[in-house]
């Protein structure tokens, strides 16, 4: 934590940030980037602290990116609170907040996209068809504007993190991607900016997600032969449904390539479900 | 021209070049990149000379990129002659040749692509459906490996140059794209590595491409009201067909957005045609 929390600078212009970052580069300074959509919480704070520890300059981007939301999704209501976010960033040790307006990021409608046709329509992508091309394209933009040496992302968005790592590898971005462990509430619920959409009752019930995944993992560990992915899915599904949740998908995938897993070795549970109107995602390594 | 032509260094590893470029960046050196597929000619030399004049370091990449060729195209027979190319690069003032093997550029099959769904299936893209996604993706890779301040491309590949400029603008690459005039043989034929596929007779006949475009442009200029795009196309088509060429497409497009032009104001002729088995492209601003 940084004591001198007043120094944080808010930059709104992509050109101004790029100029600043180029200057830092030419002075041999290392830059850490933490891309966010704001409404910052403990999970983001852990990323910012990690970056501040390992880089000369830490930039937090705060941008609710319209191109990664579908027409019926929560773009309009996604929480925006720059003042509180700035305080958290400063306390966690960031130096710069990059908070552009949509018009500055998209002065013209985007024609050029970065996408991953092999993985972008699976899992979350099946239900959010424009999401991952929107994410990869805006992350490529943020990389090119901020010119970081390292960029920090939460493992919570597991498929997103995988796609970003793959993009960096495939397109040779000169950036190291650091994934950080999901931070959870005491109940086990993964901390997310979207949790605040829920009523206290829904929020309590949503702890069944983690409970279900843990039960599945324990069942798996207790046996000499692994349970099949289908059996694990049933265990989790039951737990979430009993708590009143509605499953969107549960998949067991290989950790390394995100393809459907045949056994539970090196596998990860990925899931999305609804509590009330709130869509939640989570994951657990088996 | 550079007298000391022996100093040129050939780098084959993407990681080694990226490391070198990062070092140059941290020392405040400017880098110019000239991406090529080798078989270098006067057109390339003009780009290299321009870069050498305006940057501390000039990198020429020589890579016949498999992902931008269709299954029935000339990937296997595209001319490769690194030794002669190295000589031309050195004489024109380059410092580094980046000549990776396909395996080094694509250690795994590419999953992440850069593409422009608005423009990649028009004109050349109509007949080469995978071409422009292959081009944009490999150029993004070359940019991220070479980390140039400026990159130089010939106007000859007019649609390609437009798509690359759009990519840089859309994805905020910190790079200035410089387009350089098409260099022509005395006959008017645009210089291209593919010209050597042709017999002397075909090569002579192919001068009808430029002659046709010039005739169309003159007709247009001589009138107070512009000719319609269709009339211009007919003039060019007739000239090329009379010389034995086979038209693939002729389009009159707006210079700024590459959309079909309604008048000839700020318009460009784009065309592709065959002489024998050789596919040639050309363009002329009206």
The termini of chain A sit apart by 33 Å
By DSSP, the count of extended strands of chain A is 10
Order of helices and strands of chain A: EHEHEHEHEHHEHEHHHEEE
Structural class of chain A: alpha/beta
Strand content of chain A: 15-25%
Instruction: Give the chain pair forming the largest contact, with residue counts.
Output: A-B, 34 and 34 residues
Radius of gyration of chain A: 19 Å
Oligomeric state of the chains? homodimer
Would you kindly provide a written description of the structure presented here, covering whatever features stand out?
Two copies of one chain form a homodimer. Chain A folds into two domains: 9-180, Rossmann fold, CATH 3.40.50.620; 193-285, Pantoate--beta-alanine Ligase, Chain: A,domain 2 (2-Layer Sandwich), CATH 3.30.1300. The model of chain A has no long low-confidence stretch (mean pLDDT 95). The longest helix of chain A is centred in the middle third of the chain and has 16 residues, at 131-146. In chain A, strand 6 (150-154), helix 7 and strand 7 (176-180) form a beta-alpha-beta unit. Chain A is built from ten helices and ten strands. With 286 residues, chain A is an alpha/beta fold. Chain A has helices spanning 14-26, 42-54, 82-92, 102-105, 124-127, 131-146, 158-170, 200-205, 208-221, 229-242; strands at 9-11, 31-36, 57-62, 96-98, 113-115, 150-154, 176-180, 246-254, 267-275, 278-285. Chain A has a six-stranded parallel β-sheet, with helices on both faces. At the A-B interface, helix 1, strand 5, helix 6 and helix 7 of A face helix 1, strand 5, helix 6 and helix 7 of B.
């Amino acid at each position: 934590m940084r004591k001198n929390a007043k120094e944080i600078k808010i930059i709104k212009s992509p050109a101004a940030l790029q100029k600043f970052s180029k200057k830092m580069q030419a002075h041999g300074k290392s830059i850490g980037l933490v891309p966010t959509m704001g409404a910052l919480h403990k999970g983001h704070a852990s990323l910012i602290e990690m970056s501040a520890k390992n880089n000369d300059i830490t930039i937090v981007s705060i941008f609710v990116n319209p191109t990664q939301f579908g027409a019926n999704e929560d773009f309009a209501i996604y929480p925006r609170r720059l003042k509180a976010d700035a305080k958290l960033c400063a306390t966690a040790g960031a130096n710069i907040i990059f908070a552009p307006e949509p018009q500055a990021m998209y002065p013209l409608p985007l024609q050029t996209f970065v996408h991953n046709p092999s993985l972008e329509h699976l899992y979350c992508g099946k239900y959010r068809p424009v999401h991952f091309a929107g994410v990869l394209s805006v992350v490529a933009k943020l990389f090119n504007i901020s010119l970081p040496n390292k960029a920090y992302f939460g493992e919570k968005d597991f498929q997103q993190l995988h796609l970003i790592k793959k993009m960096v590898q495939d397109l040779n971005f000169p950036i190291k991607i650091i994934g950080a462990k999901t931070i959870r509430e005491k109940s086990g619920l993964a901390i997310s900016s979207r949790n605040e959409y829920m009523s206290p009752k829904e929020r309590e019930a949503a702890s069944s997600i983690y409970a279900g995944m843990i039960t599945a993992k324990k069942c798996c560990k207790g046996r000499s032969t692994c349970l099949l992915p289908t059996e694990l899915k049933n265990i989790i599904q039951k737990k979430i449904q009993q708590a009143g949740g509605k499953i969107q998908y549960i998949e067991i995938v290989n950790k390394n390539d995100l393809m459907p897993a045949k056994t539970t070795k090196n596998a990860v549970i990925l899931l999305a479900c609804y509590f009330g109107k709130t869509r939640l995602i989570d994951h657990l390594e088996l």
